[in-house]
Amino acid sequence: MFLGLGMAAGSDGVLGIEFDDAELARSLGVLALTLILFSGGLGTRWRDVRPVLRPGLTLATVGVMISAATLGLLASVVLGIDPLQGILLGGIIASTDAAAVFSVLRSRGIRLGTRLRSLLELESGSNDPASVFLTIGMISLIQGDGTTVVELAWDFVVQMTLGLTAGLVAAAGIVWLINRLRLDVDGLYPVISLAAVLAVFEMVTWAGGSGFLAVYVTGVAMANREFLHRRSLVRFHDAVGWLMQIAMFVVLGLLVFPSRLPDVAGPAMVVAVLLMFVARPLAAVITLAPFRLPWRHQMFVSWVGLRGATPIILATFPVVAGIPDADTIFDVVFFVVITSVLVQGTTIGATARRLRLDRDGQVDDAPVSFDAVIAGDTGHCLHEIRLVDDAPAAGTTLMDLALPAQVLVVLVRRGDASLMPQGNTRLEAGDELLVFADTPAFDSVRHLFGPGPSRHFDDVPDDPSAS
Questions:
Q1: Residue 233 scores a pLDDT above 60
Q2: What is the architecture of the domain spanning 380-452?
Q3: Domain covering 2-354 in this structure, CATH number
Q4: Alpha-carbon distance 118 to 98, whole Å?
Q5: What pTM, to 2 d.p., does this model score?
Q6: What is the DSSP string of 185-206?
Q7: For 446, which DSSP code?
Q8: Domains 2-354 and 380-452 share a fold
Q9: Domain coordinates of the chain in residue numbers?
Q10: Does residue 104 contact residue 348 with C-beta atoms inside 8 Å?
Q11: Per-residue pLDDT, 250
């Protein structure tokens, strides 16, 4: 929608706004991507991504390389461009977009298991740095500035190492600063965190590291630390992240010329098909198979590689650098992103159900944000639960459940009515409960709110021989 808005307002659109400054668009894109990555990291829970850390990071790095190389070589034949330019194109569109993936999943009402959801979250949130590096590196090779493949590989190791280390150090420093400042105006804390993120990106980039990886790691590390105004800062950066995505889609819509798209529509459609059915599945299978993930997970990961603002931002890099056929690459990337969202985005729900990965009807105990929760207290969470038919708690009063003192049912929603529960309140199948609980205590009574212990697809261990 926002891409369409930008296109409608652009030089070929209704408003006829003249905008063809690719360098300005790239600068804005770098700023936007920095804030988007930090926001994504800040919303990542370490306890969820830790079990899928190895497959997730492998897919986000090696998978990006495999996808870029495969698609690049095939696209060079389809588009009639140099193989290096083809791999540049592949690197640009190799990264996936976490916000696009999860907004589609939410809008379709798809409930994935924790393991699969965490894998998608980690991969789509951490593959941007590899895609950025590959894009910049391929531009250097094409320009012939003396950079060799060996030097490029070593540079990758250095950038990622510096970015990872700087991100961990920066997170500790920012948390220390926020916890020790005593400002009279609470609204200044988001200003400090925002300035700190931009400073981290700039300093790490200046030092020769990956600034994008640094800000993402900073967000992830901060998400698992205690600091003042935690919830308000998380919400602030989430809003900033969405604002940046919307702004970039509009700006990039202004930058594209719709009148040029028909000329590349045919070849671009072939490239999109190769990405969805060849390059992405190949990268997912090669990188995930060694970790013995269920084949259903591998197939789903292959299909949900939605593209978002990042590839279009990166497509401005070769335009600014004056790479041959850069305009064609930009138009193809733009077309592939739209095709990915329209085709893959509209079929994610059906794919999850066909692969039996949609946990609809299972107990959903995902914590929800609530302003009444004490800031900085992560020992307690609010859980929103829907009672299924065979839940032990269904048909039982709260008094008879004998819940621990650390578990409190604070609200029961039944149909259109909301009830303040008492001891004699009898729960019914289909009720939606809001439960405030200490995490260990909730884990001990979780079975009361859902079916008996069962094995879901996301609970399959890495080693099938384990039990």
A1: yes
A2: 2-Layer Sandwich (3.30)
A3: 1.20.1530.20
A4: 11
A5: 0.73
A6: -TTHHHHHHHHHHHHHHHHHHH
A7: G
A8: no
A9: 2-354, 380-452
A10: yes
A11: 86
